[in-house]
Structures are given as C-alpha cells and as structure tokens.
Hints:
Blueprint: E1 5-8, E2 11-13, E3 18-23, H1 32-35, E4 39-45, H2 53-63, E5 72-77, H3 83-102, H4 115-135
Antiparallel strand pairs: 1-2, 3-4, 4-5
Amino acid sequence: MAxxxxxxxxxxxxxxxxxxxxxxxxxxxxxxxNKVSTACELRFDLAxxxxxxxxxxxxxxxxxxxxxxxxxxxxxxxxxxxxEMNREDALARLVALxxxxxxxxxxxxxxKPSRASKERRLEGKAKRSGVKKGRxxxxxxx
Length: 142
C-alpha cells in the first residue's frame, strides 16, 4: 500500500481512492501534443472514500460540476507539458479542495439590534417618508 496523502495534520487521503488516467492534451506543444498523452485526469471516489461525513457534505457543493452522479470527483490537469507535473498539479488541486472542505464554518450567533440602531433606522425611514411626501403634487385651490 502506498503512503497516505496528507491533507491536514489530522486528515489523510487513501491513495487507493485516487486513480489517474492520461489523455492527449490540447494547446501548445508542437508534435509532442499529438503523440504523447500528457493531460492528467484524476478520479477520486468520494462515495467510497474514508472521510468524515461532515467533510463529504461540505465537499459536494465545493466540487460542483466536477462531481458525477456516482459520487466520483474528476479533476483535469493539462497546464504542463509533462505527465508527472500534471499528475502533481491534479493531486495538489484535490488536496486543496479537501482541505477547504475540512474547515468547519463558524456558527452564527444571533444578536438583537440595539435600541440606538432601531432608533436610527426609524429616523431614516421618517426622513425618507418626508422627502417623498414633499414630492407629492397637491391640487391647488383656486
């Protein structure tokens, strides 16, 4: 078994959940681009991965359209001309995505508006009402 992929100090990914395939890349590269499959397609089976359920739940919206209906996260990397660099790029992007999902959002603490803020709000509304009342055209009595 390969070494686990570190994400955070308390979270590692199982390398068996990650598969790579290589396809021909588009873009610059001369004849090399027509002969060598350098673009990397990383597949991470989120459904089968040994991740805590809360991290999986946060990862689904972060993955967006990169997540298939079967729960497989697909990351495509073709920035570089070599297979190895594209593989490292794809893996780094996966690790960054999982690391973002590992951060728990802060709980919002409900607060009441202060008395002064309520008064300021009402004063603003009254002032605005006065401005609008001043714009009304009243029929003149002649």
